[in-house]
Each structure stands twice: as structure tokens, then as C-alpha cells.
Design goal:
Elements lengths: L1 E3 L9 E3 L6 H14 L8 E2 L2 H8 L3 H13 L3 E4 L3 E4 L7 H5 L12 H6 L28 H13 L14 H15 L8 E4 L1 H13 L5 E6 L3 H9 L3 E8 L2 E2 L1 H7 L5 E4 L13 H14 L2 E5 L24 E6 L11 E4 L5 H12 L4 H12 L2 H27 L4 E3 L7 E6 L5 H9 L6 E2 L19 E5 L5 H16 L1
Parallel strand pairs: 7-8, 7-10, 10-11, 11-12
Antiparallel strand pairs: 1-2, 3-5, 4-5, 6-13, 8-9, 12-13, 14-15, 15-17, 16-17
Helix pairs in contact: 1-3, 2-3, 6-13, 7-13, 8-9, 14-16
Length: 496
């Protein structure tokens, strides 16, 4: 039941006995709000505790607790026998500063701060269950959550591990296991000392941009490419230089011709994002040679190379690097689940100390418990078994998508490479508005990611003629039946 206070200066305040918030806290909040908004001016006398308790039909202790907290924080003053008053020590600007909610920042963001909210860095979030054709999402139905829960529970039952501040580079046993895994599966040459565990690959990209580039420094990015990289570079005031991608990957010759002063090159050579092409050996060697001659860093983002459905995964670009110019970036989001927020960098030895310090400044260290659980997950063989299992499942889902596309919409689409990854890129043959089609698909509970949004704007990309349209179609996170439903919706929209 709602009880209204009847004292003249408290008539707008109310207490509700049915709320989970304690009654004394409700009274504290109400009186505090009255003071901050000017409804209870300085030196106003409040009712005695017994009188207010009787008025509110609550215990006197409830009122005593509220008054005591307000006095401790400086809102009220008073002495026994003299009464309780709104403090006369509060600043005169208090009322005007608190009367209206703030709608604009107190002062503009800094020039660099403004770059963080630039529309070119769009953030996508997932707050519902996976549906066709969500990209970047692994099959959560395949992940062994009972195993993960058991490993984590075991740690919490025996919390003898380090719960204080830990090594900014990451949990040492995990880094040793990652070094062994990368050597075996990707041909990466590294030791545990060269690995830094990050809060996802996005943090790794931001650290790289922050520590290696000065404002105005040029950085090649793939066009089309991963927009999260562009966001990190833009936020750190680097000069983003879009370089086209063709059937052999990043066009090194064009980049060298038009942006010869580049200090950094971002690339996804094993499975180009989003088109899916694999960089040829000739291009890899050309890129390494150019970077070596020009003392430029190469960032190799190897985000989902474990999933190849014909042949074996290609060796990393880092495995060919003889001059120490490649920074290898990996993520566990695609292999395990994005909410884990674990990624890593493999750094050339001369960069390790600076990046460990940079990581410490940014967030001290990545959460330690998930690192420990992951280390045990790998050490006990669950990691390799999970990769093997997901390869089999994703291959089935990949085949179901291709079969449905060929059967229903092949007349409308050109297919990109389809031999790897967790999504397929398709281009519209008639160059229709992919954003408009994607909006229509949402009404049918289908996600279509427009291909055009992965291209830089024409003002930023003078090396490209026009912007292709199409879609990225993810298949890893949903069952084949859901994928076939999504293709049927796409068929209706393209034939409508």
C-alpha cells in the first residue's frame, strides 16, 4: 500500500512497503532528492523521528536509520533536543546543478574522444537467440558447456589460485598451451613470452594502433574489410587507407603505389573478411618484402582459419616472416563463444615489453578465471575435441546452405569462395539495394548482413569503382532447417 507523507514540505514524497528496497532506504532517497531539487531548502526543519514514524506507520528505527545516513553524508544537521534540519553548509549552486537531468556533456568531448563515436565504427550486439544468417557466431549448441561448468566449478571449490592482480601478459600456463597449439595448427613460430592474452581481438587491434601509430600515420586496410579495425585506427587518429582485395587477396601493388608511406598493414590472409578469398603465396611474399623494405608492421588477423572444408588449413603469414614484422592476432570468440572475451597477440620479441606495459595501462590484465579454465580445457584435450566436432557440424551446415542457395537463388547471386570459414559471401547480380532487402528480411526474423557495409565510402576509397552489393550469410550458429527457412525468405524477397 502506498503511504503519502502529509507534512507540507514532504507531500510529494512516498514510501511503498511492497518494494524490495528497504523502507529506510526509500525514505533516505526521498529526502535526499527533495534536498537536491530544492523542495527542502537549506535550514528546513524535518519532523521529529517519532512523529514521522507515526505519520508513515513505520518503526522509529526506520526513520532513525534514514536520518543517520543523511547526517553522515552531510545533507542533514542537528543536535538532541534542538531538532533535525537540512544542512546550511551545502553549496548554493547545488539546486541549479541538480534540478534538471543533464542532456548534453558538461563540455564537448576531446578531439580523440569524438572519434570514438564516429558512425564509421558500428557496434553489433546479440541479445537474442541465433537465427539465420547471423555472422560471427559459433554454434553454441555444439559447445560442451557441462565440461566448462565442471572445470570452472572445480576451480571455485578450491580457490587457491591467484585472485589478486596478475601478469598483464596473461596466465602463463595458458600462454604456453597457446604457443604449442599455434605451432602445430598454424605454423606460428613463437614462445609463451611473445603471447599476450587480451580481452578479445578488438582490444589487441586497439593496442596495436595506439602503440605503433602516431596521429596521421597511414595504415592499409582491406577494402572490403573488418570495420572494427577501421574503428580502432580512426579512434587513434591514424590515416585509414583502403586497399582493394581481388581473387589473390590484398592488392599489394596498388597499396604500395598509392600509400607508400604506410606504417602498418592490416590483413586477413587465410580467410579474407568478408569475401573469403585466401591470399596467394605470391602476394604473401610480396607483402612481406614490401613491409621489410619499408619497415612497416603487418597485422595478421587469423580469426577463423580452423574451419576449412576442402583440404587442410593454410599456414599463417607469420610462419613466412623472416624480419619480425608480423603481429599475429587470434580470437577464441569463433572457436568457443564471443561472451568469453578472450583473444591474444603473438608479438615480435622487441615489442613485447612495450605491449605488456600498454596492456597494464589499459585494464591491468584480462579476467584470470576464464584464462585458467581455458588452460585446463586445452590441457585435458577438450579444446581439440571441440574443434574436431565443430568442423564436422559446420561442414554439414555449410553444405545445407550451399545446397539451398543453389536450388533457390542461384539466378540472383554470384558466390564468393565457399571452401572455408563460418559464412559465405554472395553478390547480387543486378546490384539491388542490399540494405533495403536486409530490412525486409528482419520482418521475417532473418538476419541479412549487407555486403556493401563492409566497403569504405567512395570518398575514402579512390582505388575502387562503385560498391558491390550482396550479403554475408552465416551458417555456423543455426541448424540446417533454420538455414533453409532463411534461404526461402531470401528467395521470396529477391523474386518479389
Amino acid at each position: 500500500m502506498l503511504i503519502m507523507l502529509t507534512a507540507e514540505y514532504l507531500t510529494t514524497l512516498s514510501l511503498d512497503a511492497s518494494l524490495p528496497l528497504p523502507m529506510f532506504r526509500q525514505l533516505y532517497d526521498a529526502i535526499k532528492d527533495g534536498i537536491l531539487t530544492g523542495k527542502l531548502p537549506s535550514t528546513t526543519q524535518l519532523p521529529p523521528t517519532r512523529a514521522l514514524a507515526h505519520l508513515l506507520r513505520v518503526s522509529r528505527q526506520t526513520v532513525l536509520n534514514a536520518y543517520s545516513q543523511l547526517m553522515a553524508e552531510g545533507y542533514l544537521s542537528g543536535n538532541v533536543g534542538k531538532g533535525t534540519f537540512v544542512s546550511d553548509k551545502l553549496p548554493g549552486t547545488l539546486v541549479s546543478a541538480q534540478a534538471e537531468p543533464m542532456r548534453e556533456p558538461l563540455r564537448p568531448l576531446s578531439t580523440r574522444g569524438q572519434r570514438f563515436i564516429d558512425i564509421r565504427s558500428k557496434i553489433n550486439t546479440h541479445d537474442d537467440k541465433p537465427r539465420a544468417f547471423r555472422i560471427g557466431m559459433p554454434g553454441l549448441d555444439v559447445f560442451p558447456f557441462p565440461v566448462w561448468a565442471r572445470l570452472e566449478a572445480r576451480r571455485w571449490r578450491r580457490p587457491s589460485f591467484q585472485l589478486g592482480y596478475t601478469d598483464p601478459a596473461g596466465y602463463r600456463p595458458l600462454r604456453e598451451l597457446l604457443a604449442a597449439y599455434l605451432s602445430t595448427s598454424r605454423g606460428v613460430h613463437c614462445s609463451a613470452e611473445q603471447i599476450i592474452v587480451t580481452s578479445g581481438s578488438q582490444q589487441a587491434l586497439f593496442l596495436i594502433a595506439s602503440l605503433l601509430l602516431a596521429p596521421g600515420d597511414a595504415a592499409w586496410v582491406e577494402d572490403p574489410g573488418y570495420r572494427g579495425t577501421n574503428g580502432a585506427l580512426h579512434a587513434t587518429e591514424a590515416r585509414v587507407c583502403p586497399v582493394p582485395v581481388d581473387q589473390e587477396g590484398l592488392c599489394v601493388e596498388l597499396g604500395a603505389q598509392h600509400y607508400p608511406d604506410a606504417k602498418l598493414i592490416y590483413t586477413t590472409p587465410s580467410h579474407q573478411y568478408p569475401l573469403g578469398v585466401t591470399m596467394s603465396l605470391r602476394r604473401r611474399l610480396d607483402l612481406l618484402a614490401w613491409a621489410t623494405r619499408n619497415k612497416a608492421w603487418i597485422v595478421e588477423d587469423d580469426y577463423d582459419s580452423e574451419y576449412r572444408y576442402t583440404g587442410t588449413p593454410h599456414a599463417s603469414l607469420q610462419s613466412l616472416d623472416k624480419s619480425g614484422c608480423v603481429i599475429y592476432v587470434g580470437t577464441l570468440s569463433k572457436l568457443l563463444f564471443p561472451g568469453l572475451r578472450l583473444g591474444y597477440m603473438v608479438l615480435p620479441p622487441p615489442l613485447v615489453k612495450a605491449f605488456v606495459n600498454g596492456k597494464a595501462v589499459m585494464d591491468r590484465h584480462t579476467s584470470i578465471v576464464p584464462q585458467i579454465v581455458l588452460a585446463e580445457f586445452i590441457a585435458e584435450g577438450h579444446f581439440n575435441r571441440h574443434i574436431k566436432r565443430t568442423r564436422e557440424v559446420y561442414a554439414e551446415r555449410h553444405a545445407a546452405l550451399l545446397q539451398a542457395l543453389e536450388h533457390q537463388v542461384a539466378d540472383h547471386l554470384d558466390f564468393g569462395p565457399v571452401d572455408a570459414g563460418m559464412h559465405v559471401a554472395v553478390a547480387l547480380k543486378d546490384q539491388r539495394d542490399d540494405h533495403a532487402i536486409a530490412l525486409q528480411a528482419q520482418k521475417h526474423n532473418v538476419e541479412l548482413r549487407p555486403l556493401s557495409q563492409f566497403y569504405a565510402s567512395m570518398e575514402e576509397a579512390p582505388l575502387r569503382d562503385g560498391t558491390p552489393t550482396g550479403f554475408l550469410l552465416g551458417f555456423a550458429s543455426v541448424l540446417p532447417a533454420e538455414t533453409r527457412f532463411g534461404v526461402s525468405v531470401l528467395h521470396k524477397l529477391l523474386n518479389g
